[in-house]
Amino acid sequence: MGVEVTTFGCRLNAYEGEVVRRQAEAAGLGALDGGAVVINTCAVTAEAVRQARQAIRRARRDNPEARIVVTGCAAQTEPESFASMDEVDLVIGNDDKLKSQSYRALPDFGVNRYEKVRVNDIFEVRETAAHMVDSIEGRTRAFVQVQNGCDHRCTFCIIPYGRGHSRSVPMGAVVEQVRRLVGNGYREVVLTGVDLTSYGPDLPGAPTLGVLVGTILRQVPDLARLRLSSIDSIEADEALFAAIADEPRLMPHFHLSLQHGDDMILKRMKRRHLRADSIAFCETVRRLRPDASFGADMIAGFPTETEAMFDNTLSIISACGLSRVHVFPFSPRAGTPAAKMPQLPRTVIKERAARLRERAQEAWTTHLARLAGTQQPVFVEKPGFGRAPDFTPVTFTGHRAEPGDIVPVFVTGQDGLTLKGVTALQIAAE
Predict the structure, then answer these.
(1) Which residues contact 263 (CB under 8 A, 6 or more apart)?
(2) Three-state helix/strand/coil letters over 34-74
(3) Which of 142, 232, 233, 329 could form a disulfide with 281 if both were Cys (CB 3.0 to 4.6 A apart)?
(4) What is the pTM of this model?
(5) How many CA atoms lie within 13 A of 111 on its CB side?
(6) How far is Cα 57 from Cα 70, in angstroms, rounded to an integer?
(7) Phi then psi for 367, rounded to 5 degrees?
(8) Is residue 368's pLDDT more than 80?
(9) Rounded Cα–Cα distance for residues 419 and 396 (Å)
(10) Which tens digits make up the pLDDT trace of 64-105?
């Protein structure tokens, strides 16, 4: 069966999953009788960890002879809990998962005669090397890691303990990786990282994310589209604003690590921005790029959140002009300060999350309505489906576009039954 990799969580994990596949195969895991299954975990919520455990048990049932390797953020933060599972053969930390030698003992010695847990102190890792990936299995757009780790300590977040200190990939290596992917046929690339806008201060000359974006677009002229994954708007630099204003190849969708709309809760989260900062960022970007759209991560039911504080989260959706919102009901993570704060009843958290999702759906419907009557260049992901520049998913008929093509479509209206309420589009007459 070779090496099968199941990845949970963010785009960075998806990119690393491809590196893991390559390194595990180089170590010979794919040649073992029964092959190997690698579960690349996420630790952002307790639910993500639970899903990883389910995947491990399912992998063992489906592949009784395979070697089961667990890695990723949850493996880094709670290795012994995974090592205690009978289904698991090996637990590898976030740094070691990217090295082929980490997997070599499996075919050579057999895991039962070797150390089961290989997880180092992630805070001792000070550099992030470039990993040249030629393709990402099953995807028409490519991800490129430019940064890893986080130096901030938001009170609800366990991720720094899974990823370590912030560290950046040198610009030259990033440009070379993008050039390589474009040469292999990728027309759209997404820059990824744990704290993307913290890119650069650990590198010679301290380049910023905006400088990196500008350098990529200048030095890889054949790249059709460049996207940014989740950003922290308070760290946006002037070079990034300039690229937003002047570079049509930088796609006009920005997903913000917003988290909440109330200043007191933001302080208790130890976020570095206030409500007014987020609103000002969206207003500035929209002035520079009128076609910009914004998404955000939002937490409902954070400890001590009152109804008035929650109302500020509901209202910031319209104040920022958000079009899509990822809603997270607060889930305490052991080892974080927020887990020790006065908790809200689960019923209240669930009810507020439902209300936040309802408000988010209203914003999404409004966003779709604004597209009616416009023509959009759609990046085709699979036959009949693609994404507009602002990342709106679209379905279309009447065109034999292939994955990776960019085709013009005219928005004719909405169809609530098509792909979870996504706008139904038709190809403009040629």
Answers:
(1) 274, 275, 312
(2) CCEEEEEECCCCHHHHHHHHHHHHHHHHHCCCCEEEEEEHH
(3) 233
(4) 0.86
(5) 23
(6) 12
(7) -60, -45
(8) yes
(9) 11
(10) 988 899 999 999 999 899 999 999 989 998 888 888 888 875
